[in-house]
């Protein structure tokens, strides 16, 4: 395995399309492929195996109308999917890239992909780790793939089908049509209904999302609050120039989407779009309360803003700062109880983790 310096995406370190670092992929990659659909998946439950099977069948159904302009890739950690694919007769429907035993960073994996990646009509599965690596890793991987493999536009989606796959494709077409030359672009679909798995959850998940979103607004550009962006739908779209901006080298393993949003909304020339999308009821989620607490910790570690400050700001004007779907019919006192309850649950979780 080569041990060159990892890629960087800023300034003069970015290889041009004609540089030697970029040449190998032009030999393998279908020149008509311009858009990457990236699905991030943690293969750990019967639901997740069925989601993978469904995704393959959906691509077989929709792919003919999209190939060669679109490539579908699944960045996968957790259990090895090959026995399941063989059992279901799906081996011929995928192209498999196995890096799991190497435990590569996203930058190292992309260096390998430049020589290995040869996308075709099949689902491209990138098996990067037998262990859960968090939410940041696949976003870092896909944005680097989009830069160094020269995709013009990128879609990154969770594999849980909270947003139906046809809606993902429709929203991607909207994003591509909104593209303006020489302008970084990010599109956040807006769920018509935030269908979240809330079974056995100790807090209000809708309120928790709003708290996390407030970090984005106050760390980037508060004017985007007026758009009420749905930053955590599990789906976003970027173009090549936007992907050149983001850098995940110093952030934690759980805050990938939040950090991407902060990084892009800070850009003075960023174009921000949103499109309403339908949702399915979510029955299974890898986002536990512990994961959400880890996100809050990482936001503090990187940006030095405590959760308590965000809650105080939200309570100054909850109708302005919070989504109406969960708090429209509540009094300010009721909203306050919910937000303060989340903060207490967060402190209790930290105490239980640090002082068993």
What does this structure look like?
With 356 residues, this protein is of the alpha/beta class. It is 43% helix and 14% strand. The chain has an 8-stranded mixed sheet with strand order 3-4-2-1-5-8-6-9, sandwiched between helices. A two-stranded parallel sheet has the order 7-10. Helix 2 links the parallel strand 1 and strand 2. The chain is globular, with a radius of gyration of 20 Å.
Short description:
The chain is α/β, with parallel strands linked by helices. Helix content is 43%, strand content 14%.
List key phrases describing it.
356 residues; alpha/beta; globular
* Global geometry: globular
Order of helices and strands: HEHEHEHEHEHEEHEHHEEHHHHH
Oligomer type: single chain
Helix percentage: 40-55%
Please provide the count of β strands. 10
**Total count of helical runs of at least 4 residues:** 14
* Mean pLDDT across residues: 88
Tell me the major beta sheet: 8 strands, mixed
Distance between the termini: 42 Å
Radius of gyration, whole Å: 20 Å
Main-sheet strand order equals 3-4-2-1-5-8-6-9
Unreliable spans: 1-31
User: What fraction strand?
Assistant: 5-15%
């Amino acid at each position: 395995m080569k041990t060159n310096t990892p890629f960087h995406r800023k300034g003069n370190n970015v290889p041009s399309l004609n540089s030697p670092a970029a040449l190998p992929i032009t030999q393998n990659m279908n020149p008509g492929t311009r858009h990457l659909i990236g699905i991030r998946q943690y293969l750990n439950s019967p639901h997740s195996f069925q989601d993978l099977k469904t995704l393959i069948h959906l691509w077989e159904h929709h792919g003919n109308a999209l190939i060669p302009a679109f490539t579908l890739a699944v960045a996968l950690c957790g259990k090895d999917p090959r026995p399941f694919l063989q059992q279901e007769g799906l081996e011929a429907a995928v192209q498999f890239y196995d890096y799991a035993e190497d435990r590569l960073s996203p930058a190292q994996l992309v260096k390998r992909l430049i020589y290995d990646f040869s996308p075709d009509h099949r689902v491209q599965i990138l098996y990067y780790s037998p262990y859960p690596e968090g939410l940041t890793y696949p976003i870092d991987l896909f944005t680097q793939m989009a830069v160094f493999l020269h995709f013009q536009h990128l879609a990154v989606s969770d594999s849980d089908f909270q947003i139906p796959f046809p809606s993902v494709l429709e929203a991607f077409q909207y994003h591509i049509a909104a593209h303006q030359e020489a302008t970084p672009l990010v599109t956040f679909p807006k769920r018509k209904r935030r269908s979240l798995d809330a079974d056995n959850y100790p807090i209000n998940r809708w309120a928790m999302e709003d708290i996390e979103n407030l970090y984005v607004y106050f760390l980037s550009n508060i004017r985007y609050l007026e758009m009420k962006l749905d930053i955590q739908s599990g789906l976003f779209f970027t173009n090549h120039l936007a992907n050149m901006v983001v850098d995940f080298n110093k952030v934690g393993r759980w805050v990938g989407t939040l950090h991407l949003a902060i990084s892009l909304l800070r850009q003075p020339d960023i174009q921000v779009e949103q499109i309403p999308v339908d949702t399915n009821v979510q029955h299974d989620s890898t986002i536990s309360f512990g994961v959400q607490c880890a996100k809050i910790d990482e936001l503090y570690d990187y940006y030095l803003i405590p959760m308590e400050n965000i809650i105080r700001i939200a309570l100054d004007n909850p109708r302005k700062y919070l989504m109406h779907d969960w708090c429209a019919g509540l009094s300010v006192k009721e909203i306050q109880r919910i937000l303060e309850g989340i903060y207490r649950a967060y402190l209790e979780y930290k105490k239980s983790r640090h002082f068993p």
